[in-house]
Amino acid sequence: MKRLSRYRRHRFAGPVLLVFALFMIGTTFSVASATTQKSASTLVRSAAVDEGRQIFLKGCSSCHGLNAEGGSIAPSLIGVGAAAVDFQVGTGRMPMADMSVQAMRKQPAYTPDEVAALATYVASLSPGPAIPTQDVVNYERDGNTAQGGELFRTNCAMCHNFAGQGGALSQGKFAPSLMSSEPVQIYEAMILGPQSMPVFSDKVITPAEKLSIIKWIKASQSEPAHGGASLGRVGPVTEGLLIWTLGLGLLIGIAVWLATKAR
């Protein structure tokens, strides 16, 4: 006690105590703030899950089951993750009236906030692929257009056409055009494999290669038609058919005109 009393009267005792008090106050404030932020984040997520469940019960449960367990006409959504909801609902493919046909892209039935809430609810059921963030899908920074074109022609062109215009598949199905697809949707499709599309895992196509494919698709979307009318960019068959039809028709017209003039 005498030693403590002696140190208490030391000229540095006041500054040391002040620094210690400030340190303790700062530490306490940081811990309290982190706890408050965590609690607020938990509350926001809980509210989004509740909102998403209400949307699910009204618009999805009739096909996917009350607990997303699936049914006779629709698969289970347990484990599909938020990315599947964002892709299917965000592009208007879901909900759909007839589950026997291929889902087509259309105007979304829900707002972006409602889609996000629905995705949060489905993600809360079981772990699954998350929605890729803008930093993950930064194709401008990490993509390579030339590499993306090569990868697209190797892995995607047989279904989506060499120019990304889409094409017919077996049993009445089709690969959709990619000319209106957004980067996040393209990335989601590669990791999910919707409809007849296979899943391209990171072992098959790495994240960097996925970004290169996206960069090539975006470049293809904005590529001008230097040769004039592109005729849908579906290849030489369409162009040849048009030339043959118009050329043959023109020749027949000229022949008829010459025969008429000769009389």
From TrEMBL:
What is the recorded membrane topology of this protein? Multi-pass membrane protein
List where the protein spans the membrane: 241-260
Main localisation = membrane
Q: Name one Pfam family in it.
A: Cytochrome_CBB3
EC code: 7.1.1.8
Which cell locations does it reside in?
Answer: Cell membrane
**Annotated Cytochrome c domain residues:** 47-126, 143-221
Broad EC category = translocase
Q: Which UniProt keywords apply?
A: Cell membrane, Heme, Iron, Membrane, Metal-binding, Repeat, Translocase, Transmembrane, Transmembrane helix, Transport
Q: Does the keyword Heme apply?
A: yes
Protein name as it appears in the record: Cytochrome bc1 complex cytochrome c subunit
Organism of derivation: freshwater metagenome
